[in-house]
């Protein structure tokens, strides 16, 4: 199976490859931020916007979900290079209006890359593709909503529609959206989390009884050991480096577990401090374990085994708060070091050095992200990380805990608000009691299941609240066909992307206000609320004039879709919601556990922190009412001779499918993205040459060959047998059915590929 990549995408004549960087941030980060921002926003708008970013009276960064410091500790410039890029992308003065869509047919647009599409600017009015149409045309808001109402109303069952959410949506919009979807009659609420930290949410829920992390920013500052596993904070959570720097200055050690030696984990030059701008910066990682891709389960078992052997057990915690210790101890004591070596690619000495860091710390925080969650055994790996934390009592005490670092700025809040295809019964009970209707109880479609349903004709309507489903989802060719099968695809969006041009028989783009913009829905200035990765909830107020007078807020759009679809069914208060979001927050406070007196609490400077029983009182709301030691088999991911294990990751110049630019300067890549990083000895062993252009061909158990053409081979230090290339260009290689057991998260970090020389250059 092959996919015709947009032609433009493959033309990489300008690609330059240099040496990877030795430090992250520093003056270059500041210079790049300012150049991009001023180019797209002008000087005045840049200043007005960036000064409000992450301030108590300002707006929440649209970038990642890293928390803000306490208001008394904020800087004037409380953002990073990538936060500024995220804001610039939204606050740009570029526009795509009617003339643009007249000039560019759908055929033309579908040949463009996501980069080109995104660079054209903000969408200014609702657009439609009518059945058989060759272009997007303007459509009134009323006709757009009526079209949605007609399609949804015409389905045989509400389960024939899927309602996707990307994690930027505010709590208010998310709450209204899930209410509408459930009143319509389905739990088909797939979200980006299904491709992201779902393995975390499932694993943590089983191990500690709640699917969220247990630390605060203070815990990071106070930790004695911080483990950063499968995460590249220098690019994806840059302000985390400031927290790591503070921890280092307080005496912490840092252990990095990553196949790649990521610049951000080596050394950090804090752009907010004079010493960071002038000096060499702070060395961060004390030890880097270059683990083989997918080796973390075996690695954490081996670390657990050594800690047991060395008697590093918090007996009091284990006895009082956990179950399953003996079985787990028996299992990891018997760990086969030969299997561990093959799985991890690490020597026993390397693992002993890491285990000694755990031994010598009385307060350890373990952080992780996509390097852990996007594998077949990801849920088991998350549980193994928990096991090691339980062994030393590293949860529910200062300076210690579990820290999954979330991706999208409000992905955690959306889940709290009920964006979940498998909602807990208590949430549905409270929804019923508050709104007087019985919500559907049957679990709905997640992302992978939604693609299957569209592919197989079991679903006919797709609605996306933000995001870029077509590019973000696995198995691009299958996903694209699934979307083309739909009768109607709808995207609530700020910028143009590939999901708009790979569409159903009819398609709508509904342009929404971004978070940086003033929201005057209902004739009053509205604010919204969001939750970060550490369960802190706070308000966000956009300072800018909207990109176009025709934009509507996500809340307004949801309420209007609801009215057009279910009318006044159950007497739900759509017009009250739209008139004043305070009314939504009042309902949130009555439905969502932990959100009592919501509106008052978000008004406090810095907001409030949601309850987390393991963190707050070492109580574990699992079935067993204890933290659960889980036993998982040790395994080695087998890769056939002549093949490589490919991870698909982010460059420094992108936010998921939004490409800001073509550089990945920490890894030495300039002006191109179609590169595959391979160990120099593997390049030789495979009979390839540096700089050669190859196709990546994925081989999976279904026998289908998936191909992504034309990647340049770049030598890069990493464990033998591993490789890396950027997402989303590599999404055609990830099989739809290759998912994490228990969470259904696509295995984007372990794809078996062969490198096939392309056409002669
Ligand atoms: N600027 C920017 N910020 C972002 C994003 C963005 O695209 N751009 N995306 C946001 C989102 S939605 C998310 S989810 C996060 C993602 O944040 P990350 O998880 O940091 O993102 P990735 O680029 O996928 O990087 C995964 C890291 O895991 C390592 N890795 C891969 N496989 C393995 C493995 O098997 N074991 C171990 N130990 N490590 C492994 C890779 O080398 C890489 O360093 O970032 C968020 N923030
Ligand atoms: N191969 C591979 N695939 C992956 C991953 C990987 O590591 N490897 N990572 C996965 C992960 S972790 C994630 S989270 C998903 C991301 O999946 P998504 O969340 O679906 O993708 P994004 O690229 O973040 O979505 C960008 C689009 O959102 C829209 N948008 C931006 N801001 C707003 C806003 O304020 N409101 C509205 N309504 N729309 C807005 C814009 O139109 C923009 O084009 O991708 C997943 N896919
Ligand atoms: S660390 Fe994340 S949330 Fe903070 S400014 Fe940077 S991108 Fe925005
Ligand atoms: Mo994510």
TrEMBL record:
**Top-level class of the enzyme under EC nomenclature:** oxidoreductase
Instruction: Give the Molybdopterin oxidoreductase domain ranges.
Output: 122-492
Which cofactors does this protein require? Mo-bis(molybdopterin guanine dinucleotide); [4Fe-4S] cluster
Q: Keywords, A to Z?
A: 4Fe-4S, Iron, Iron-sulfur, Metal-binding, Molybdenum, Oxidoreductase
Q: Which domain of life is it from?
A: Bacteria
The terms describing its cellular component in GO are:
membrane
Q: What is its EC number?
A: 1.17.1.9
What CDD domains is this protein classified in? MopB_CT_ydeP (cd02787), MopB_ydeP (cd02767)
Family per record: Belongs to the prokaryotic molybdopterin-containing oxidoreductase family.
Instruction: Name the NCBIfam families on file.
Output: Fdhalpha-like
PANTHER family named in the record: PROTEIN YDEP (PTHR43105:SF4), RESPIRATORY NITRATE REDUCTASE (PTHR43105)
Q: What is this protein called?
A: Formate dehydrogenase major subunit
Q: Which organism is it from?
A: Nocardioides soli
């Amino acid at each position: 199976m092959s996919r015709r990549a947009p032609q433009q995408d493959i033309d990489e004549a300008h690609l330059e490859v240099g040496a990877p960087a030795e430090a992250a941030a520093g003056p270059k980060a500041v210079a790049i931020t300012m150049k991009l921002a001023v180019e797209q926003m002008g000087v005045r708008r840049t200043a007005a916007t960036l000064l409000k970013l992450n301030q108590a009276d300002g707006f929440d960064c649209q970038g990642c979900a890293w928390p803000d410091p306490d208001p008394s500790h904020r800087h004037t410039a409380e953002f990073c290079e990538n936060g500024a890029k995220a804001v610039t992308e939204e606050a740009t003065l570029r526009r795509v209006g009617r003339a643009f869509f007249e000039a560019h047919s759908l055929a033309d647009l579908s040949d463009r890359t996501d980069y080109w599409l995104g660079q054209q600017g903000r969408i200014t009015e609702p657009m439609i593709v009518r059945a058989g149409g060759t272009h997007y045309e303007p459509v009134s808001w009323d006709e757009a909503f009526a079209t949605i109402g007609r399609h949804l109303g015409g389905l045989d069952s509400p389960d024939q529609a899927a309602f996707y959410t990307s994690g930027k949506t505010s709590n208010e919009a998310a709450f209204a959206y899930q209410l509408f979807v459930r009143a319509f009659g389905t739990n088909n609420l797939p979200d980006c989390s299904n491709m992201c930290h779902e393995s975390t949410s499932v694993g943590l829920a089983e191990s500690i009884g709640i699917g969220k992390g247990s630390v605060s920013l203070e815990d990071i500052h106070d930790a004695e050991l911080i483990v950063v596993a499968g995460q590249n904070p220098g690019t994806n959570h840059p302000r985390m480096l400031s927290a790591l720097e503070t921890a280092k200055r307080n005496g912490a050690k840092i252990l990095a577990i990553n196949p790649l030696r990521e610049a951000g984990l080596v050394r950090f030059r804090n752009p907010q401090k004079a010493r960071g701008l002038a000096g060499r910066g702070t060395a961060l990682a004390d030890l880097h374990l270059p683990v083989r891709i997918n080796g973390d389960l075996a690695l954490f078992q081996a670390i657990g085994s050594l800690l047991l052997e060395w008697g590093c057990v918090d007996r009091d915690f284990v006895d009082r708060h956990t179950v399953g210790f003996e079985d787990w101890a028996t299992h990891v004591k018997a760990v086969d070091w030969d299997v561990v070596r093959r799985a991890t690619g690490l020597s026993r000495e390397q693992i002993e050095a890491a285990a000694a860091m755990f031994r010598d710390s009385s307060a350890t925080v373990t952080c992780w992200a996509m390097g852990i969650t996007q594998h077949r055994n990801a849920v088991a790996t998350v549980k193994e990380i928990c096991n090691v934390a339980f062994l030393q009592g590293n949860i529910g005490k200062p300076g210690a805990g579990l820290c999954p670092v979330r991706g999208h700025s409000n992905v955690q809040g959306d889940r709290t608000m009920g964006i979940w295809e498998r909602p807990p019964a208590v949430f549905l009970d409270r929804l019923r009691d508050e709104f007087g209707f019985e919500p559907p109880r049957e679990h709905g479609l997640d992302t992978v299941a939604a693609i299957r349903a569209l592919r197989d004709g079991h679903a006919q309507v797709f609605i996306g609240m933000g995001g870029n489903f077509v590019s973000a989802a696995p198995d691009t060719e299958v996903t694209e066909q699934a979307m083309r099968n739909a009768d109607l695809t709808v995207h609530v969006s700020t910028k143009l992307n590939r999901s708009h041009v790979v569409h159903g028989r009819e398609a709508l783009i509904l342009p929404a206000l971004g978070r940086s913009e003033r929201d005057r829905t209902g004739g009053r200035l509205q604010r919204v609320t969001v939750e970060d990765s550490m369960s802190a909830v706070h308000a966000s107020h956009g300072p800018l004039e909207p990109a176009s007078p025709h934009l509507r807020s996500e809340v307004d759009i949801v309420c209007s879709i609801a009215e057009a679809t279910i009318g006044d069914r159950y007497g739900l208060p759509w017009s009250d919601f739209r008139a004043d979001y305070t009314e939504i927050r009042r309902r949130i406070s009555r439905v969502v556990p932990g959100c009592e007196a919501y509106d008052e609490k978000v008004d406090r400077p810095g907001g409030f922190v949601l309850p987390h029983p393991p963190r707050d009182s070492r109580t574990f709301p699992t079935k067993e009412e204890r933290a659960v030691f889980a036993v998982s088999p040790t395994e080695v991911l087998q890769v056939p001779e002549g093949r490589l294990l490919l991870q698909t990751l982010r460059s420094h110049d992108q936010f998921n499918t939004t490409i800001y630019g073509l550089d990945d300067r920490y890894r030495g890549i300039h002006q191109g993205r179609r590169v595959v990083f391979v160990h120099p000895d593997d390049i030789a062993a495979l009979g390839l040459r540096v700089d050669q252009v190859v196709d990546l061909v994925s081989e999976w158990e279904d026998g289908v060959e998936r191909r992504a053409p034309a990647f340049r081979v770049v030598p890069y230090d990493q464990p033998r047998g591993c490789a890396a290339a950027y997402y989303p260009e590599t999404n055609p290689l990830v099989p739809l059915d290759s998912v994490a057991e228990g969470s259904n998260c696509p295995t984007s970090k372990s794809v078996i590929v062969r490198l096939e020389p392309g056409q002669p250059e």
